[in-house]
């Protein structure tokens, strides 16, 4: 289901971050972050499989492109089948109305010229992305309207093991809204903004801007 908190406006740029379901009983989540207003006016959150979610998100991405005149950039988290679904979404994008995010090489040993679509949450990216989204919210840099997202943030705890400390959802809680929000904040900082015709509308951050 979608939860919308305000109207989408012309000339508004969006990044969309997606966390896919990890199995039966889990949720798929997508946060639509406005790069123009630095808020999240639209959230998708449903207990469903990733295939169904892709079919639902596709026409919404096209509608946003038509309404704003700017291509939204989308990234699925690559785990839990996200990589496959992102490739399927790319094949559906015959009119080129949205962009698939290309992940910079962080915490991997891929060849320099390799391209990986979507977002990798790994030991290098996870601490930074969670820390940065927490700082942005604490400093009131961005506006969050969605109550379930806020409730998930309050259920995030630090788990101490013998070798590390990890922020994660407490037992019995979910983290899909928090993780998709954290990914959206990364896309906000590093993804280029493209007009529907394909020309850069704002600074093209194809190079990572030393935010790690």
Write up this protein.
The protein is of the alpha/beta class and 212 residues long. The protein is 32% helix and 22% strand. It has helices at 50-68, 82-92, 125-138, 147-154, 176-190; strands at residues 2-4, 14-19, 28-34, 39-46, 70-71, 73-76, 99-100, 143-144, 156-160, 165-169, 194-195. Helix 2 (82-92) links the parallel strand 6 (73-76) and strand 7 (99-100). Helix 1 (50-68) packs across helix 2, helix 3 (125-138) packs across helix 5 (176-190) and helix 4 packs across helix 5 (176-190). It is globular and about 40 Å long. Mean pLDDT is 80; it is low at 201-212.
Uncertain segments are 201-212
Shape: globular
N-to-C SSE string, H for helix and E for strand: EEEEHEEHEHEHEEHE
Strand content range: 15-25%
Mean pLDDT: 80
How far is the first residue's CA from the last residue's CA?
34 Å
**Alpha carbon gyration radius:** 16 Å
As a percent range, the share of helical residues equals 25-40%
H/I helix tally: 5
Work out the number of β strands.
11
Quick rundown:
With 212 residues, the protein is α/β, with parallel strands linked by helices. It is built from 5 helices and 11 strands; from the N terminus they run E-E-E-E-H-E-E-H-E-H-E-H-E-E-H-E. It has helices at residues 50-68, 82-92, 125-138, 147-154, 176-190; strands at 2-4, 14-19, 28-34, 39-46, 70-71, 73-76, 99-100, 143-144, 156-160, 165-169, 194-195.
List the helices and strands and how they pair.
Elements: E1 2-4, E2 14-19, E3 28-34, E4 39-46, H1 50-68, E5 70-71, E6 73-76, H2 82-92, E7 99-100, H3 125-138, E8 143-144, H4 147-154, E9 156-160, E10 165-169, H5 176-190, E11 194-195
Helix pairs in contact: 1-2, 3-5, 4-5
């Amino acid at each position: 289901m979608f939860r919308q908190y305000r109207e989408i406006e012309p000339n508004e740029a969006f990044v969309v971050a997606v966390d896919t379901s990890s199995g039966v009983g889990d949720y798929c989540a997508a946060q639509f972050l406005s790069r123009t207003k630095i808020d999240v006016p639209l959230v998708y959150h449903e207990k469903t499989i990733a295939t169904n979610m892709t079919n639902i998100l596709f026409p919404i991405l096209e509608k946003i492109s038509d309404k704003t005149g700017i291509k939204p950039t989308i990234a699925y988290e690559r785990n839990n089948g996200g990589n496959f679904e992102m490739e399927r979404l790319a094949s559906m994008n015959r009119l080129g109305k949205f962009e698939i995010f290309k992940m910079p090489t962080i915490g991997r040993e891929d060849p320099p010229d390799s391209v990986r679509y979507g977002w990798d949450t790994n030991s290098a990216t996870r601490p930074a992305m969670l820390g940065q989204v927490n700082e942005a919210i604490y400093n009131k840099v961005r506006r969050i309207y969605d109550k379930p997202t806020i409730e998930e943030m309050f259920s995030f705890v630090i788990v101490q093991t013998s070798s590390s400390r990890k922020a994660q959802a407490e037992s019995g809680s979910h983290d899909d809204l928090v993780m998709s929000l954290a990914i959206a904040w990364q896309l906000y900082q590093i993804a280029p903004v493209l007009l529907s015709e394909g020309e850069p509308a704002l600074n093209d951050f194809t190079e990572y801007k030393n935010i790690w």
